[in-house]
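Priority: medium. Attachment 1 of 2:
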């Protein structure tokens, strides 16, 4: 284990002190939009007092400082008193229901086109810990492990690792049956679709070839084969098997 000797103690101590400092920047625009501007007349009950921006600001402080809703309301109320701002602060009975119905826009980075999509699937246990291991090694009586699991299908950008497509199905749905849905969820153009041997099916090659951008399908078979049975047909699978059989790594 490497050890380092601190030489800049003054900067180090200032950095430790900065961890406990609280800087809150309250723009005038947010304070002007603190109250709900246009209460809904079609909604039954008392009209809303606080705007969406006010609820978002309090929930952001709650997540940042890891405070409960009551503690967050007390923090904002004390800040308003120190700044001399005469605005009401919502309590936990208002923050809790508004948080459940709050639509938070998440920024999405536009992917680069063309995209190299890598697809795969995994099992997710809902209940019954260790049931898959018992089923795999045939221990005990026959288990109904399929009832406790769901299959999660993923499509990931090979360059950035960003999730581009997601699908959830039962364990009876294979990877090849879910691949067309994953490809339909990707709106940008594709240059290549890569998967393991479970996608080595004619339906997977047909789903990839049906896209207008005509990406390359790379689905290595579970076991290396020569591909002579497919040499008479000009398909991507035949060319892929020929590349695998001619590769020097196939003899390892």
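Attachment 2 of 2:
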């Amino acid at each position: 284990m490497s050890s380092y000797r601190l030489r800049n103690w003054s900067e180090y101590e200032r950095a430790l002190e900065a961890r406990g400092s609280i800087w809150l920047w309250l723009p005038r625009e947010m304070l002007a939009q603190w109250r709900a501007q246009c209460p809904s007349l079609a909604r039954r009950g008392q009209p809303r007092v606080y705007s969406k921006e006010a609820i978002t600001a309090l929930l952001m402080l709650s997540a940042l400082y890891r405070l409960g809703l009551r503690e967050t309301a007390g923090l904002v109320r004390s800040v308003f008193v120190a700044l001399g701002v005469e605005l009401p602060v919502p309590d936990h009975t208002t923050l809790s229901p508004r948080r459940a119905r709050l639509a938070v826009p998440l920024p999405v980075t536009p992917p680069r086109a063309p995209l190299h999509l890598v697809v795969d699937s995994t099992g997710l246990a809902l209940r019954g810990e260790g049931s898959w291991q018992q089923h795999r090694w045939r221990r005990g009586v026959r288990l109904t492990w399929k009832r406790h699991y769901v299959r999660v299908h993923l499509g990931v950008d090979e360059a950035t690792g960003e999730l581009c497509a997601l699908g959830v199905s039962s364990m009876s749905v294979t990877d090849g049956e879910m691949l067309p849905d994953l490809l339909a969820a990707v709106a940008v153009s594709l240059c290549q679709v890569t998967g393991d041997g479970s996608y080595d099916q004619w339906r997977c090659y047909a789903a990839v070839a049906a896209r207008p951008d005509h990406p390359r399908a790379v689905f290595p078979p579970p076991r290396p084969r020569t591909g002579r049975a497919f040499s008479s047909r000009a398909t991507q699978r035949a060319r892929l098997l020929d590349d695998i059989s001619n590769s020097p790594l196939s003899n390892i």
